[in-house]
Amino acid sequence: MQDGMPPGRRGVFLAGDDVSWTGGFAEGAVTTALNAVWGVLHHLGGRTHPANPGPGDVFHEIAPIDLPS
């Protein structure tokens, strides 16, 4: 999610098994690719259909939780 970043630092999207938080290369590669595609779409002003939201559309519902230190 890049909405909170300064405009000059937005627009770089990474995908692949090396940037995944899940085990197994195929699942992580697909997940990060879908996230990156949604990020590019959002960055360029596009949006998904309301009946089929992308990962960024529901980020606040599925985001990692902050654990106490």
**Estimated radius of gyration:** 13 Å
How far apart lie the N and C ends?
Answer: 23 Å
User: Shape, please?
Assistant: globular
Give the beta-strand count: 0
Order of helices and strands: HH
| Quaternary structure of the protein | single chain
What structural class do the secondary elements suggest?
A: mainly alpha
Number of domains: 1
The biggest sheet, with number of strands, parallel, antiparallel or mixed sense and barrel status, is: none
Mean pLDDT, nearest integer?
86
Task: Determine the fraction of residues in helical runs and give it as a percent range.
Answer: 25-40%
Which percent band covers the strand fraction? under 5%
Q: What is the topological layout?
A:
Elements: H1 25-43, H2 59-62
Note down, in words, how this protein is organized.
It is a single chain. By secondary structure, the protein is mainly alpha-helical. The protein has one domain. 33% of the residues lie in helices and 0% in strands. It contains two helices and no strands. The longest helix has 19 residues. The protein starts with 24 loop residues before the first helix and ends in a 7-residue tail after the last helix. The model has no long low-confidence stretch (mean pLDDT 86).
